[in-house]
Design goal:
With about 350 residues, the protein is α/β, with parallel strands linked by helices. It has a single domain, classed as Rossmann fold. The chain has 16 helices and seven strands. The longest helix is centred in the N-terminal third of the chain and has 18 residues.
């Protein structure tokens, strides 16, 4: 009898661990464990995607406007929704961008949209060498907060066993994402500005859901005026992005998967390589790995009958306002969308120019 009781100890221990882990599935506890906006942005984008899937614009309702999908990182996230509505009344623009994204993330979004019958008239997709870095923060960003099990398993050959195991671990155990560092959680709980943080979380979430996916910028119209600060943030960004750069066959595989589907379904697309501050662009020019990536990505893109709009070479685009070395200020988003649509008309509707 005593021996039989010992057999239940692992069961009791496992049950206890799952009970403890369930505490870290409570939203308020999650906020104390991870107080930044990363999880909020991804949750909002996930819910916004689900909203699109349920509403099926152009499928369940008559199509009164052209549909544009924007797939990008934080560099395509902060378009001004009201300006888009005012300046481009013929377009319904849905922004599925989020911070630190990759081709795998874009493929997930696009697959979900196309599989329910939504047919966009234009897909805008960002590309950038860091998105193809094997040692990027893909695991702690896209793989942690995005994707569903069906999508991951259906792309097992691209994700590989390591990424699938990581994904399952994060989904089974909340403490993998929301670390139970009790001292830090206590500090966050005692933070006198905690209510403001919670309010910012709610405002960010609600804004994304009610503004077609466009993000609520935490710095709004701020632009950095100190040239030395721009240089310093350019160096820090470059070091963060490329210090341990290694080519990711997985991300190249997802990139080709996207282009193949866009090509097969005759979906008009503009692939854009955004511009950063002149200091950051000058630093990039010195990186041999960037030149290698550019050569490869140009070849793959051309093989699928697409091309890349490289804003640093586009005479129709100018920007002299930057939030930091790696990001344009919100003021430059007007010119960004204008250049993208000019490229669209050059490629697909030249008679309307």
């Amino acid at each position: 009898m005593l021996k039989a009781r010992f057999l239940f100890y692992p069961v009791f221990l496992l049950t206890f661990l799952f009970l403890v882990d369930s505490i870290f599935r409570i939203p308020y506890i999650q906020t104390l464990a991870k107080i930044d906006l990363t999880a909020v942005n991804y949750e909002a984008k996930s819910d916004f995607l689900q909203k699109l899937i349920e509403e099926k614009p152009g499928v369940n309702t008559p199509k009164t406007k052209k549909i544009m999908l924007v797939l990008g990182s934080s560099r395509l996230l902060y378009f001004d929704y009201d300006e888009l509505v005012s300046f481009y009344p013929d377009w319904e623009i849905y922004n599925l961008s989020s911070a630190v994204t990759t081709p795998a993330y874009y493929d997930f979004q696009l697959t979900k949209i196309l599989d329910v019958g939504i047919k966009p008239d234009l897909v805008i997709m960002e590309t950038d060498p860091n998105q193809f870095n094997q040692n990027s923060v893909f695991k702690s960003s896209n793989l942690t907060y995005s994707f569903d099990l069906g999508y991951v398993l259906s792309n097992l050959s691209l994700f590989g066993k390591d990424h699938v195991s990581f994904y399952l671990g994060r989904k089974l155990f909340a403490v993998g994402t929301y670390k139970p560092y009790l001292d830090q959680m206590w500090k966050n709980y005692k933070n006198p500005y905690l209510e403001n943080v919670l309010g910012m979380h709610k405002s960010t979430y609600d804004y994304i859901l009610t503004h077609n996916g466009n993000g609520l910028s935490p710095i709004d119209n701020y632009m950095e005026k100190d040239s030395n600060a721009l240089l310093q943030t350019s160096h820090r960004t470059l070091d963060w992005l490329f210090a341990s750069y290694q080519r990711s066959p997985m991300q190249f595989g997802f990139y080709e998967k996207i282009l193949t589907r866009l090509q097969n379904e005759n979906i008009k697309s503009v692939i854009v390589w955004p511009m950063s501050s002149p200091d950051f662009e000058n630093l990039l020019e010195k990186e041999s790995l960037v030149k290698t990536w550019e050569t490869e990505i140009d070849t793959i893109t051309k093989n699928h009958n697409f091309s890349i709009l490289k804003l640093k070479h586009d005479p129709s685009y100018t920007c002299n306002a930057f939030a930091d070395g790696g990001h344009v200020a919100k003021d430059c988003y007007r010119g960004l969308m204008r250049s993208i649509l000019l490229e669209y008309f050059r490629k697909y509707e030249p008679n309307h120019l």
